[in-house]
Protein 1
Amino acid sequence: MGFRINHLHLKTPDPRTTADFYVEFAGAKIVSERAGADGRKTFRLDLHGVPLNITDYLPDQKLEQHYGLEHVAIDAENFAAEVAKIKAAGIKILEERVLPDGRQVCFFEGPQGVRLEFLEMR
């Protein structure tokens, strides 16, 4: 099995203020700042080696979104096999979709309702 943490994802109504908080009070560094077609800013931070995405709600995500720690994303080297494994185990699948860059993703529910995401590793 080949896995690695892709990112932790925080969703907030004010991504800039949240990113600035993590920079000022937690020692994070802003790695990238982007604006979507709608003008909304998204940030990728390095939180002492842990990639941290900070966004508002994502317009193309159909799965219900909430503010706070949204999910833990894990790159899966053998994406299809890992998704098949969790499906065979009866783990609740929340959403499957393809990202604009062509990678497949699968959101699923972990213990105590924690959301996890497998991303196709490239």
Protein 2
Amino acid sequence: MLYPTLDSLIEKIGNRYLLVNVTAMRAREIAQEAAEQGVRLTEKPVKLAVMDIAEGRYVYSPTEQQK
């Protein structure tokens, strides 16, 4: 079984289409931050983004998307 489950992620974000967009946005942020700091990631940015969302370290707010 995969962790985190898709259902648990959808509960946190709202719907699966928005989940894809939020995950991609967070993954790009993670990759950019790592590049700026010169840090080599041990995991892929998408996996780190999904884990951030699942564990509540990254919370989506609708006004954030408008920036």
Protein 3
Amino acid sequence: MAKKATGRPAIHLTDRALRDIASIEAYSIEQFGKRVASKYIDKLESGINYIAENPSLLREETPFHRSLRFYRVEKHLLVCETAIDTRVIILTVLHASMDVPSRLAELEPSLKAEVEMLAKWLRDAQK
């Protein structure tokens, strides 16, 4: 998924982030029903669109790499990479109650590989 509009950065979601959102939706349907799940997913999508329009709202957290940024939507954190051009890459979506440093350390090898693959794809697409 990529979104681009004049004057705002492109937003890209990794496969991991897309799987996270699908898992959140499935869990929400199971626990709260389709109507509640649909509203929650709408809020996540609105959050993604909001940071596309206002990337300065992404927060840097000092214990993490300086290219990582975070944005909270309800009970979830959008974990973003901002090091590639003017793009915002949503790496993963984590529940705020998780041990975020441990979970990111666990995911780091696969997230790094996804970002590298996406960066290559974006470079090739610009040629």
Protein 4
Amino acid sequence: MESYRGPIILSAIVIYLVVCVAMGLWALRRTRSTDDFFMAGRRLGVVVTAFALFSSTLSGFGFVGGPGLVYLMGMSSIWIAMGVSLGWIVGFALIAKRIRLFAQLGDCISLPDVVAMRYGSDSVRAAVAVVILLGVIGYLATQILAMAIVLQDILQGAGVGGGISLGMTVVIASSVLVFYTVTGGILASVYTDVVQGAVMVVASVLIFLTVLATFDGGFAEISRIVMTDDREAMGPWGTLGVMGCLSWLFMFAMGAAGQPHVITKSMMVRRLRDIKYIVPLNFVTYAVAVLLWLGIGLAMRALVVSGAHPALANPDAAAPQFLLNYAHPLLAGVVFAGLLAAIMSTADGFLNIGAAAITHDIPFAIRGRPVRNRLFWARVTTVALAVVAAIVARYTGDLVAILGAFGWGTFAAALVPVVAIGLNWKRASALAANVAIVASLIINIGSQVTGISPPLGIDVGALSMMVSLVLFVGISLAGRPPGVDKDVEAVMDM
């Protein structure tokens, strides 16, 4: 079977992509309005919504970046996983119920719709839409590039296409992504997420068992080898240090409530009471996925330290190298399919909210109404966004790095005060929301462009979120209490 490793892995990928195409065709027949395209008709059940949230959060970072960080820093990145897990609870407590009620009250189809109704301000709507659009291009570009790189490695490993170029795999990855997002919108996305989430959960367990079998002494031997090489790597803070780890914990725990591709899923649930069942299911599935994150990273570091595997040129190669060299071919195929699933689940979510920003939110903020024929233009815009992101991914790597690096932190710093605090605090003002958003963008973009980072390993996203929170609260308290619409006030009192 080892001699057929490449074709086996490629077959798993092809089967997965066929499922995505079939799901897009199925969703096309059920997508008849913009409400269907952007909000899945507000008819999602508990399991579908939970897996959609899980898949959107994990993305390519968890399956590629996570093991790479563990390989590089040891236990440091576990604080990210802990932060995201806590983020489910924070997001549920602060906004899940509230945002669903606002969406129902105002028939909202996007996050800017919700904040515009809360603050009674089109300027806040526009500011949030711009933040979303900026983040979407960077995040989407990095997801497409990640898909393209994985596909290129798989095709070359299977001996298909010879020296296929990265540009060609960018086209392939973008085409599949665009097809099922354009045909079915978010409806295709969320139902595909069920398949994606199931693949990721099962794959994580099986890969962790494979990790344990890599060394005769199992996890104890892996830990001993890593600790012998670098004692700090197996310590609670890894090699990043206490301040860096705590800033990650803060940023990812609080920042989960500011990720638009995640929190808008709460607007799609069929029944309000279902939300309380979604969070525990998210917590369990994400905790299982962390097994792959931790296991592969430590195993590859132990293999390299012990001399059983050559040193990695890039830490992000940890997951692909482990799968290609140490996992059973069938399992490797399933996990690579899960990797593409994780990447695509995030990318299709960004295409959806980006299309909403262009066709609905920004026109509404400027002229008081969205574009005509929104469903048609939403699909056209989805294609245009994917094309732009694919070009950025292929030809402007520096821009991808800048936008991708501040992705989570930019969304968190700009949107946590406005959404998580603002939907619960009547004193919050539109001026405070706009200032917090602008300040967070200046700090995040400025840090990436100038290369200036906070001391002690503190994450710039955590710093900018702290600044935006202080500005948001301070300006709101300093100004006169804003008037709140009676219907909005009633929702906030629930």
